[in-house]
Amino acid sequence: MRSNFGFRALVCMAAVALPVMSALGQAPPSTTPASKPATVPAELPGFRTVATAETTKIKAPTSGTGSVLGYLGIAVKGQDGRVVVEEVDDHSPASSAGIVAGDVLTRINSTEIRQPSQVAESLLALAAGDSVKLGVVRDGKPKELSATLAPTSRPMKLSATRAIMGITLKESSESDGALLDRVTSDLPAAKAGLKSGDMITRIDDAAVGAMVNITEMLASYAPGDTITVRYRRGNETSEVKVTLVADPRAGTDVRSYVPANIFKKDVFRLAVITIEYPDTPRSDKITAKAWNDALFSSGTYTDKNATGQPVFGSMADYFREVSCGKLKVEGKTFDPVKVAKNRADYAAGTGDRRMLNEAIDLVLKRDGADSMRAFDGVLFLHCGGRVQTNRGNVFWPHRSVLLHQNRRYSYFICPESSTANGDRMNNISVFCHEFGHMIGLPDLYARPENPGSEGLGQWCLMSNQLGNGKPQHMSAWCKEQLGWLTPTVIDPTVKQKLVLSPIEGTTDQCFKILARPDGSEYFLLEVRKKTGFDIDLPGDGLLIWRVVRGRPILEESHGVDGPLGPRSYLRSVPFPTTSNHSFTPYTTPSSKSQLGGGMPVFITDIEKLPDGRVTFAVGYQKY
Questions:
Q1: Residue 572: its pLDDT value, please?
Q2: Inter-axis angle of helices 315-322 and 288-296, to 10 degrees?
Q3: Of the candidates 528, 562, 558, 526, the residue with the CA atom closest to the CA atom of residue 544
Q4: Which of 115, 199, 264, 575 is the most exposed place for a label (fewest CB within 10 A)?
């Protein structure tokens, strides 16, 4: 019997690659209501909106097969205007269904088969475990058969939820183990008796060295598994059994960008602590009131800040706009605290949290033990300008978690000033990006430690936020993850003409076009317009986001592929352009599934209207 090459690969489907500011400088409105469902515009007969489009639902994977492609196990050929089964693999779904060589294949489900290419096309949307009805003619007599597709492969998978012990490590001069820095109470390591300062030397049969990544070692374990941990405490070596638990911060896929800890409340209460140093005092102009205005005011932060730079809205204004009023940011800026050491003394190592713990101690001592209890997170502002340092240093703007006296503080840290000499009050742009982490969003920029990685450029807050206090909106993917956007889900094989309004100020102007029925790969379509906090976007029009493996990727109209795509020919990133007014399996960029197979996605005749809306057709297969 022949192996699965040639056209059989097509049939197997695995190898086929078939309230906003109306003008700059005006005050944003105090609330931004969600738009009402749009109706079919009178001037666009035949076009459907998000409210009137034909919709579909994401189909749950069958029998735990996930997005594994389906395999029927036949090779076909065209003969005398018919599609004839040339070979049938032994022990295949086709063989089990009773298909034999010489059968004339006439129908797959509801699709009439007239040429060999239709066999692959009709199966592309199906996954392993799906049932398929087959019409054949044998010896001049029609027969109705059915088969259940098998997986093309059976890949091994990591645990769906990350298993943890509840430890963090710190650098050590010793090479024969991993030194415990913190052991989180109520988690398995602490319950097993491990303590800070212990040296882990072995997990089950695997030796643990100083540079080992214990997270990677535990990746093959699932929550509930019990491991044997050998450790050294002083001169004594012992072993304990540790039963792993699910990481409460983890998403559904350890390799996914899907946010783990989405903030679910309607109001986020933020504590702001300004940290002074003996050699770096705060600016007399940048008071607690100045920060309250910049971070928490409503519709009034539109003139100049405390040091005279133009401003265009507060951080609270920004998140009220992008969430359409679904998130309110409130808080308090505490009076500054002065830590004991000069600023440079806290920058010697990476990951050092002494300065932050000291700052909280000073606040609690001065303002009372309960003064920090009413807040969901903390912003630390270090006086002076941005410190030139490496990623991972305490002064690098970042979001993390601080354990202080058995309480976990979610925090982010930024410089008070945007200049090296500290003479300009920082604007809200970097604050909005870091606050995005506070509510659960990941970084979506190209990672410098991963050459060749592709970010989202200036098209998403969580990639490269625009500066000068006018951060752009986040991507449709981010808004959906946060519950601020409800896309209309459509089947790309259903023909319809659609119209989409700009997303700014709405909670529904987005289409989700499935590339695979189980939702493991899809496209989010949003229209961006230069308005409100999106006023400085480099271009406007239809943005197409491919979402695969839980990660958004921007499909640029200009067709430049790879890491340079989001940063090249910026005005030509949104559709339509002279480069592309369609997005299909045959254009560049291509809508072909990155997972292989999938449904054919044809988005054609993309046209931008004078009022900013965009029209296009879905399902019209033009060649």
A1: 94
A2: 10
A3: 526
A4: 264
Residue 614 CA, distance from chain mean position: 25
List C-alpha distances in Å: 268 to 373, 378, 414, 480, 545.
13, 11, 18, 18, 28
Token reading at 367: 């303002």
Check residue 1 and give its pLDDT.
39
Distance CA 71, CA 127 (A): 8
- Kindly state the tokens that stand for 341: 């050491």
Q: 90 Cβ partners below 8 Å, 6+ apart?
A: 1
CB 93 within 8 A of CB 140: no
Q: Is the peptide bond before 93 cis (omega within 30 degrees of 0)?
A: no
Instruction: State how far the Cα of 34 lies from the Cα of 36, in Å rounded to an integer.
Output: 7
Domains and CATH numbers, the chain: 7-12+70-151 (2.30.42.10), 35-66+483-623 (no CATH), 163-246 (2.30.42.10), 267-438 (no CATH)
Question: Which token pair is 588?
Answer: 């560049």
- How far apart are the C-alpha atoms of 203 and 275, rounded to whole Å? 41
Please state the separation of Cα 340 from the chain's center in Å.
Answer: 40
Q: How far apart are CA 483 and CA 262, in angstroms?
A: 9
3-state secondary structure of 204: coil
Alpha-carbon distance 423 to 286, whole Å?
A: 9
Query: Crossing angle of helices 429-438/315-322, nearest 10°?
Result: 60
Q: Which residues of the chain have pLDDT under 70?
A: 1-42, 60-68, 125, 154-161, 171-175, 210-213, 248-260, 348-352, 389-392, 447-453, 623
What was the pLDDT predicted at 9? 35
pLDDT at 441: 92
Contact 329/321 with Cβ under 8 angstroms? Answer: no
**DSSP per-residue codes, 343-381:** GGGG-SSBS--HHHHHHHHHHHHHH-TTTTTT-SEEEEE
**What is the pLDDT at residue 470?**
96
Q: Are strands 521-528 and 70-71 parallel, antiparallel or unpaired?
A: unpaired
Question: Smallest Cα–Cα separation from 109: which of 77, 139, 70, 81?
Answer: 70
Q: Is 570 helix (H, G, I), strand (E, B) or coil?
A: helix
The encoded tokens of residue 340 equal 């004991």
DSSP tag of 161: S
pLDDT of residue 562: 82
Measure CA 155 to chain center.
24
In terms of Cβ atoms closer than 10 Å to its own Cβ (0-12, 13-18, 19+), residue 172 is middle
What is the pLDDT, as a whole number, of residue 526? 99
For residue 615, the model assigns a pLDDT of: 98
Contacts within 8 Å (CB) and 24+ apart, 188-194: 188/164, 188/242, 188/243, 188/244, 188/245, 189/165, 189/229, 189/242, 190/166, 192/229, 192/240, 192/241, 192/242, 193/240, 194/165, 194/167, 194/229, 194/231, 194/240, 194/242
- Give the integer Cα–Cα distance in Å for 468 and 516: 40
Q: Is the Cβ–Cβ distance between 277 and 340 less than 8 Å? A: no
CB neighbours (10 Å) of residue 47? 19
3-state secondary structure 524-559: EEEEECCCHHHCCCCCCEEEEEEEECCEEEEECCCC
The token pair that represents 430 in the structure block:
């970097």
pLDDT of residue 127: 78
